[in-house]
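Data card: per-record layout.
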Amino acid sequence: MITVVSAPTNLGLRPPERGSVPGTSKAPEALREAGLFDRLTAAGARDGGVVVPGRYVDDDSTRARGHVRNEAQLVDHARRLADRIERVWRSGRAPLVIGGDCSILVGAGIASARRGRSGLVHIDGHADFRHPGNSDDCASVAGEDLAAAVGLHGPAIADVDGLSPYFAASAVAHLGHRADDEHADEVRGVLGCVLSAADLLSRGVESVAAEIRRTVGTGYWLQVDVDVLDPAVMPAVDSPDPGGIDATQLTQLLATLAPFAAGASVTVFDPDLDPDGSCARLLGEVIGEGLSTLGTALEL
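The structure for this 300-residue chain is written out next.
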C-alpha cells in the first residue's frame, strides 16, 4: 500500500522573475484540494505528512561560484526527505512523494542508496543533465537532478554523505525529452536506456515500458516530472515544450511501471499557472489511476 508524503519545495528552481519565488511549493496542497489525497486514502493510502523545506532565497547576486541556488537548504531538505522515505519503507509501504520541484530526486536518491541502491526510471520532458562538466551555468538543481543522481554533479549535491552515485548509470532509464534537448546525445552515452517523447509516440507504451524494465529491473525509484506532458495538456509547468505525450499515455505508462517500483515522486506542477484548477484535477486523475498500484508486485 501507498503512503503519501508531501515535499512542497521550490528550492531547485530559478525565480520566475527577480524578487519572486516559483509556485511549485503549492503543488501538494493544490492537488489535495483537487481531491487526489482523498482518492488515494479511499483506496487504502496513508498520509505520511509533510517534509517542510527551508526558505527560498533569490541568491544570484550573493551565491559563491561553484554552488547551486539554495544549496544548504536543498541538501538539508534532501536528507530529511530521505529519512521520511526510509520510515515509510520500514513500515512495509511504498512512498509516493508529491513535490515540489524535481530536486527532490536527490532525497529519493539518498534514501535509495542507503537502502542498497536500485534502478531509476526518470520520466521528464527534459534530460535534466546539466552539470559542471558540460556547463558553466549550473545553479538550479531542478535542471540538473538526473546528472546529480548518477554522480556527475558537484559533490555537495551528488555525493551527500559519501553516497555517490545514488543510482548506477547503467540501471537508469530516462524517457520524455524532446528532439532538441541539448543534452540528449550525452545521456545516450551515459545511461542504460534513453527514450524521447517521440519514441513513445511512435512505438507505444507497451514497447517502451518493456525496454525500460529490462534496464532497471525491479524495486526502482520512479520519478515523474509532469512537463513530460504536452503543453496543450499540461501548461502549468515552468518550462513547457511542445512535442510531449498526452495524459492517457502517461497514465498507461505509470500503471505499467508502478507495481514494480519501490517508490515514486511527482514534480514540477505549478498551481500559480493553473488559475482555474483544471490542471490539478487532470493531474490528480493521472496520479490516482496511474500510480494506484505502486509497489504492489514487491515485498517492501
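Known properties of this structure: The chain has a mean pLDDT of 97. Strands lie at 2-7, 46-50, 94-99, 120-123, 172-177, 193-196, 220-225, 261-267.

See the next section for split statistics.
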